[in-house]
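User: I've been trying to design a sequence by hand for this structure and keep getting stuck. Would you show me what you'd pick, starting by listing the structure so we're on the same page?

Assistant: Good idea, let's start from the same input. This is the structure you sent:
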């Protein structure tokens, strides 16, 4: 190999790490990546969108239309505009009146004081004591949730998708839908995960586990046309809307955000 060939090979090698990095920085503490799923869906593009949040630098809030005084429940896009949020996703499933299905508390205010035994994962934010992580996904199977839940101002309970050992906890079933989910990685960063393409939930978990996320735990948020992820970064808007749901909306036609009574929102940087 001559000197010119060696130089060309060296330049290629040096460029590989940059080419391999899928993350786009949208704001301090907020990154976006898009991945092709290894398992292809029969509908849409089989893509997974992930927003990675360093909660210590970019605060996350649980917002409720009832608490915030919204007579009409906003869409994810409208939530972002109303509350200066740079990213918005679903805050779990809810009852017809908008009340969260699982235990929910936002910055000290109760949204639903009843805990579900079959919901095994808890998102906790806003620690009330020094020394606690700014965000955790607690697993009722291995964490002392009774001790930890009162020590956080914000709590959201939902269905467990992946437990503290990394095990897929969802039984195989035939129904499939678009999915919004929440994960946490080995560095304690929150992962907002969205796929428009429908998957059986057990299969979707396997798709996400295969991605280079350093994923440690994961919880379910919502499925079907309500599954939403909206990003309103400076000079960059990303809209991810769900559509397909077995037995309800068996098509890929939905292109609009649905109204959401409760959301998780990433606080936008303060403008200079």
């Amino acid at each position: 190999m001559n000197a010119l060939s060696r130089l060309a090979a060296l330049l290629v090698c040096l460029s590989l790490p940059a080419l391999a990095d899928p993350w786009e920085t949208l704001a301090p503490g907020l990154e976006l990546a898009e991945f092709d799923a290894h398992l292809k869906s029969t509908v849409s593009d089989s893509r997974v969108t992930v927003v990675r949040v360093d909660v210590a630098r970019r605060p996350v809030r649980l917002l409720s239309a009832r608490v915030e005084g919204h007579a009409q429940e906003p869409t994810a896009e409208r939530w972002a505009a109303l509350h200066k949020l740079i990213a918005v996703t679903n805050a779990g499933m809810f009852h017809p009146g908008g009340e969260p299905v699982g235990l929910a508390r936002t910055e000290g205010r109760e949204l639903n004081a009843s805990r579900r035994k079959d919901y095994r994962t808890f998102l906790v934010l806003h620690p009330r004591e020094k020394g606690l992580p700014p965000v955790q996904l607690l697993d009722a199977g291995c964490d002392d949730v009774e001790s930890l839940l009162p020590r956080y101002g914000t709590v959201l309970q939902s269905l467990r998708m992946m437990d503290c050992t990394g095990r897929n906890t969802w039984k195989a079933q035939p129904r499939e839908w678009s999915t919004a989910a929440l994960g946490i990685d080995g560095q304690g960063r929150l992962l907002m995960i969205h796929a428009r393409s429908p998957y059986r939930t057990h299969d979707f978990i396997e798709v996400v586990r295969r991605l280079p996320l350093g994923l440690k735990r994961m919880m379910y948020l919502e499925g079907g046309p309500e599954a939403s992820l909206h990003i309103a970064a400076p000079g960059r808007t990303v809209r991810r809307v769900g559509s397909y749901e077995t037995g309800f909306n068996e098509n890929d036609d939905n292109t609009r955000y649905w109204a959401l009574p409760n959301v998780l929102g990433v606080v936008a940087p303060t403008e200079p």
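That's my pick for every position. To get oriented when you compare it with your attempt: Residues 26-267 form one domain. The two ends are 54 Å apart (CA to CA).
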